[in-house]
Amino acid sequence: MFVMELAYTAPLEAVEREMAAHLAWLDTHYASGVFLASGRKVPREGGVILAAGVSREEAERIAAGDPFVLAGVCAYRITEFVATKTAPSLAAVRETLPS
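The structure corresponding to this sequence follows.
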């Protein structure tokens, strides 16, 4: 599983200009089942996406296709972790530690 952390690198006005395209991009990855949750940071200096079911290379490719990245208004930090414990509603993405 991945925590995909966005950090805005441009003023909010520039971010807002790309918001509709970013939301459509999010919808595509929710529809594919990769994105589990997303939202803005507080204070509003970026966002966070939880993603599962892909390799690190695929997570990086997905992030590179974000309209925010293509417009140069954000940068990503991607952290992989093994979700060994989850809420019951996330049992489908629960993982086991490698042996």
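The chain has a mean pLDDT of 96.
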